[in-house]
Design brief:
heterodimer, A: 629 residues, alpha+beta, Jelly Rolls, six-stranded antiparallel sheet, five-stranded antiparallel sheet, 23 helices, 55% helix, globular, B: 391 residues, four-stranded antiparallel sheet
Chain lengths: 629, 391
């Protein structure tokens, strides 16, 4: 930990600063370290990863401020990339605290198979998965199976091929370092993109730490997902396209499509744009078609289907509600949206309201991603599933960063301060507790769950959820639309000095609201105290977010929660007749093994309520109080 | 937000003055909003929590002082963070640490925001920090003595003020630039004000003596902005326990933080008494302290542990309450070599009890603690607990 602190604390300033600014930065770091150490004497011992993350973040913040505001700054895209790489390499040990998760181990199995067996058959890798990935693994449902029983992975093999050298040299750490290298390349590319688009140096230096050291890049840069290499490739596509350097962008596009078949949707739009070009448009389009064909051919050879494990049915989703849910969810969801997980990029959304004054590459980026986003947002898995937040739009962050840079001079300094504070908090949290980057997408969020569990009140309802839509989601969506409208008309004018105090009042009001009994109680949530029983459906059910969650109680088990007094409706399922008790009243429940039913119950008064299962088994979904006494 | 920049014409209010007025009103309104939020956010009944609105006022004032620089949002952000920490479900120490670190960062940002700090602003900074450090809990404030200390601190600042650059070359009729102070001057004034317990009254002479010394040695020539800022921030980072910074700083630098299980004994032995303790198998240390021994010199033996004839001396342990503000000056005790005391009280009244950890003889199943018969009759050796190995 000391080595990491020294690395970050000394190397970063030396990389960027010189003269008086360097001396002041190093002095500030030493002072901050000493102050934190002394403060640590009176605070109960922290988790050492959390302590390291706080210390590391403090140092990075000091350097970032010095880089953004100092005079003697040596700034270039290469230095920025090198600094980012250094930080990512320091974060990797924290990420290895728990076994890799989600799709990560499967990529690693493919890498191991390519390295040792020179094939894609993973049967022996699954047998040795504990050695390779740190935990026992089984093939995922619907993974392709060969004619002779070969067990393939649904994951495209290109990322595994990229990981080969690193994995061969240093195992898992080497594979993670390879991703970190791609992330550093992505940072370099993003900064060059901003420079190409005419963003001034001061703005680039100011937004650099948000992009490089903030979520989602810092998380995907230190885990095995194709998102960061995709961000690099997409940025190169944009840069190459803008500079009319065909070889560059076609090669980058080819890599992009090989990384994940879903990026074919980008290729289609790029081909359309390319066709519209007067010169050499047809040739480029032909090359794109070849690239797409090769990618599809590889997928077909492995999985026997040109769309891998997907189905054409997935394209037939035209319910407006699904679109609204996905669009606003990606922007505002407490667990999976930009506002809470990577707030800096919300500025990229606001840049949409200033479409005409944004950089050309920003508009081009949105055009290229239009089909992809159009087909992503109505999907039930718009939030990314079992992955760190913002998985499916991480590749798009360079475009949002460019948008943010375009309107940076319009953003009030207190807003930047709030964005910075929240970004630091999210980054520290994710680095210190990497397993919390994965969430079962049940409608809560890590922050909401923490507050709910600690305060024994439903704080999760304050965070907009588009996975299990709530009132906060509707309010947040309306506010976003209003804010966008006002911003587009240049009417979003709040005195700068009042922004932070107003935010404090909003926090206060939210805290008061969260502490009070809720109108609706989801009975599986973190604020409910469960005395026995089990979660429904089980935690790691595939696509669990498609189910109505609940909590199963058997006879003799109970739960307690904060609720509003009055007449309420309890939603439940029961395989056989059951009896529950709320307060002093017993309620016999009819059997309802397949569908959820509701029963009217009386909640005695505002406050903590105990619900007991006296006989039978019940799956309790929610309690909705409409009538107050 | 306008930066103003013009000057007032005597006898009438210029548009620039009008802008300044509206700016001031806006700042006042924003501060009122923040204070309201802070007052309503208070969830706990400790002096630090109750002082949160006052802390917010001071942060807002610092932000106002640097409103012409780009750093004011960084200063003002501390208001939001402090209020957020107040509401978060954290342990008391973590909550205070969050609040105090944000306050420290805000003050550091305010100090570094301008290369030259006008004397008046420096005086305000010192006064506000001295009030934060010494006047919480408000109930313990002895106003006359505190005002004397504050005046002494300002005198230190005055002794360290710097003449305006090029003051002698001013043309006639031009208003002279104000005296300025440096962060190191502010830090010196704050530390000079922090140290004297003001009980007895004569201790308030310390800042005056420091001011005199600074004036004699012409210390105003010393310039170390970053060092001064760091010192200020370090002191501010501990404002919920400022009494410990003032009277028990070594505790913060050497405390053994590992919490181990203890088995309480709670025995107090008068001179020549003895007490037998049957030790649990995992016993490692004895937690002991003294009572009515604060005037005994270092090295005085209070008793022994048998077998092994382990001497229990002042220095290895201390009077339980020697660090209390009202006893500290008269006490001849210091922080024990292996302190095992707990943080008690808040703000400038915070102190650590004088309990100490004394390692037990290896392999002893039973020990006997014998008190020195030559101690003053009122002296007591307190055996608080047996501490176990590990968790």
């Amino acid at each position: 930990m000391i080595a990491i602190a020294l690395t970050v604390g000394i190397a970063l300033p030396l990389m960027f600063l010189r003269g008086r600014t360097l001396a002041r930065c190093l002095g500030a770091e030493v002072a901050a370290a000493l102050i934190l150490a002394i403060a640590g004497r009176v605070v109960p011992p922290l988790d050492r990863y959390l302590a390291a993350a706080i210390a590391g973040a403090s140092l990075v913040v000091i350097v970032s401020i010095a880089v953004a505001s100092g005079r003697d700054v040596r700034w270039s895209a290469n230095r920025a990339a090198l600094a980012a790489l250094l930080v990512y390499l320091c974060v990797i040990p924290a990420m290895m605290r728990t076994p890799i998760d989600g799709d990560e181990p499967y990529y690693l199995l493919v890498t191991d198979s390519l390295l040792h067996d020179h094939d894609l058959d993973l049967r022996n890798q699954y047998r040795e998965s504990v050695r390779i990935a740190g935990r026992a693994l089984e093939p995922q449902p619907s993974d392709p199976v060969g004619s002779h029983g070969e067990q393939y992975s649904r994951q495209e093999p290109f990322l595994a091929i990229l990981l080969l050298p690193g994995y061969a040299a240093f195992g898992l750490a080497g594979a993670l370092a390879t991703i970190a290298l791609f992330a550093a390349l992505a940072i370099r590319s993003i900064i060059r993109l901003l420079e190409d688009e005419g963003i001034d140096d001061a703005t680039i230096r100011a937004i650099f730490p948000f992009v490089a050291f903030g979520p989602p890049l810092i998380f995907y840069a230190t885990r095995i997902w194709p998102e960061v290499p995709a961000a690099f490739a997409f940025t190169e596509v944009l840069r190459g396209f803008r500079q009319r350097r065909g070889r560059r962008w076609i090669a980058a596009l080819f890599a992009l499509v090989l990384l994940k078949l879903r990026f074919v949707l980008l290729a289609v739009m790029i081909a359309l744009r390319s066709l519209a070009l007067r010169r050499r448009g047809a040739g480029a389009t032909l090359l794109i078609a070849i690239a797409i064909s090769v990618a599809i051919l590889i997928v077909w050879l492995i999985s026997g289907s040109v769309i891998n494990v997907h189905s054409w049915e997935e394209l037939k989703q035209f319910d407006v509600r699904d679109y609204l849910r996905g669009i606003f969810g990606l922007a505002l969801d407490g667990n999976s949206g930009l506002l809470f997980q990577a707030p800096f990029y919300v500025l990229g959304i606001f840049a949409l309201a200033r479409w005409r004054s944004t950089a050309e590459a920003f508009r081009l980026g949105w055009f290229f991603a239009a089909l992809y986003l159009f087909l992503l947002v109505p999907r039930s898995e718009w939030h990314g599933g079992w992955s760190p937040p913002l998985r499916y739009i991480t590749f798009f962050m360079p475009v949002l960063a460019l948008g943010a840079a375009s309107i940076w001079h319009r953003v009030a300094a207190p807003v930047v301060a709030i964005l910075g504070a929240w970004t630091i908090g999210v980054a520290i949290h994710g680095v210190a507790f990497p397993w919390r980057l994965f969430h079962i997408a049940n409608g809560e969020s890590p922050a909401g769950e923490w507050l709910s569990a600690a305060m024994q009140a439903d704080f999760s309802r304050l965070f907009p959820s588009f996975i299990r839509p709530n009132l906060a989601a509707i309010i947040a969506s309306a506010l976003l639309l209003i804010a966008l409208l006002l911003f587009s008309r240049d009417l979003l004018r709040i005195p700068s000095v009042a922004i932070l105090p107003m935010t404090a009042v909003v926090l206060l009001v939210a805290f008061r609201a969260g502490s009070s009994p809720a109108k609706s109680v989801e009975l599986e949530d973190a604020h409910v105290t469960h005395h026995g029983g089990e979660l429904y459906p089980p935690m790691y059910t595939v696509a669990r977010f498609n189910y109505r969650g609940g909590w199963i109680l058997h006879a003799g088990q109970a739960m307690s929660f904060l609720a509003r007094g009055g007449r309420c409706e309890l939603e439940y399922m029961a395989p056989a007749p059951a009896v529950i008790q709320i307060g002093t009243v017993a309620y016999p429940l009819d059997a309802s093994p397949i569908r959820y039913r509701t029963v009217a119950v009386d909640i005695p008064a505002n406050g903590r309520v105990e619900l007991k299962c006296l006989s039978g088994t019940i799956n309790l979904d929610g309690l909705h109080c409409n009538t107050n006494r | 937000m306008s930066d103003g920049g013009g000057s007032e014409v005597a006898g009438r209010t210029s548009p620039v003055a009008g802008e300044r007025f509206s700016e001031a009103v806006l700042w006042l309104a924003a501060t009122a909003l923040a204070v309201y939020a802070a007052a309503r956010a208070v969830r706990f009944d400790t002096p630090i929590d109750r002082a949160l609105p006052f802390v917010v006022v001071i942060i807002a004032a610092w932000a106002w002082c640097v409103r012409r620089t780009r750093w004011w949002p960084a200063v003002q952000l501390a208001i939001l963070i402090a209020i957020a920490f107040e509401m978060m479900p954290l342990s008391e120490a973590a909550r205070f640490a969050g609040i105090s670190l944000s306050v420290a960062a805000a003050f550091a940002a305010a100090l570094l925001a301008e290369p030259e700090i006008p004397f008046a602003r420096g005086a305000f900074d010192v006064a506000s920090v001295v009030v934060l450090l010494r006047w919480i809990p408000f109930g313990d404030v002895q106003l006359f003595r505190e005002l004397l200390v504050l005046a002494g601190a300002l005198l230190v600042l005055a002794a360290l003020r710097r003449a305006p650059a090029g003051a002698l070359r001013l043309r006639s009729g031009q208003a002279p630039a104000p005296y300025s102070v440096t962060p190191i001057g502010v830090a010196a004034a704050i530390i000079a004000a922090l140290l004297p317990p003001a009980i007895p009254l004569r201790t308030v002479a310390l800042p005056y003596a420091i001011a005199f010394l600074a004036w004699i040695v012409r210390a105003r020539r010393v310039r170390g902005d970053l060092l001064g800022t760091a010192l200020c921030a370090a002191v501010m980072a501990m404002f919920p326990w400022s009494g410990i910074v003032a009277r028990g700083l070594p505790f913060l630098l050497k405390q053994d933080r590992e919490e181990r299980p203890r088995e309480g004994i709670h025995a107090a032995l008068a001179p020549s008494e003895s007490f037998e303790i049957r030790l649990p198998p995992s016993a490692e240390s004895l937690i002991v302290s003294g009572a009515n021994v604060s005037r005994l010199p270092r090295g005085t033996t209070l008793g022994w542990i048998e077998p092994g004839h382990v001497a229990l001396k002042i220095g290895d342990l201390a009077d339980w309450g020697y660090m209390r503000r009202q006893h500290f000056f008269a006490s001849r005790n210091h922080l024990p070599r292996h302190p095992a005391g707990s943080l008690r009280d808040y703000g400038y009244s915070a102190w650590i009890d004088g309990a100490a950890r004394v390692r037990l003889p290896v392999g002893a199943g039973t020990i006997r603690v014998i008190t020195n018969p030559h101690l003053p009759p009122s002296a007591l050796l307190q055996i608080e607990a047996v501490e176990m190995r590990g968790r």
